[in-house]
């Protein structure tokens, strides 16, 4: 589940659900699990408190990757060209998982409505349906088609900033703003005063409407005798 989510902290029912699914898979399963409390572990499951994710994803026999959908995990799975089943937990996970599903190389599931049958079906689908492998290979090709590798890019821009003494021309103008300007405190105070003024004005008007007496107004209309022949 990545480094931000510990599988050992997941609810008991969800861990039981995962074991049901893994037991019904013909493939061997690597599961990053930090605890020592699991019993009746399926024979095809190997636990590890920490697994070298890059090495695992890069193994030529890997069929699929079940992940929470963290940004780094998504980049790594595209880099190695592995189809995904995502179970987003919090933060950016849902957006990353939705993007991966929209790109055609992942199936996104909901932790609150997931069932053993649904997860098992999703895993089998990304393994057996060649469209998922095709799409992730396409994304891999797009990702790797760069003029320079990320490490070279990082070194270049670090040296660029050093050569130009901080590269002031690339810095955000907000770096030189005061606290009031940066957080727009003057605007916040103005809007707060306007709202307070509206509140007290409305309150005064309602109070005056309750105090003023209600005058009875009577209108006498002239009567005319109309003779009908």
UniProtKB/TrEMBL annotation:
Compartment(s): Membrane
Origin: domain of life: Eukaryota
GO cellular component: membrane
Record's keyword annotation contains Transmembrane helix: yes
Annotated EC: 2.4.1.17
Residue stretches spanning the membrane: 182-200
Family the entry assigns: Belongs to the UDP-glycosyltransferase family.
PANTHER family xrefs: EG:EG0003.4 PROTEIN-RELATED (PTHR48043), UDP-GLUCURONOSYLTRANSFERASE (PTHR48043:SF27)
UniProt-recorded name of the protein: UDP-glucuronosyltransferase
Source species: Dendroctonus ponderosae
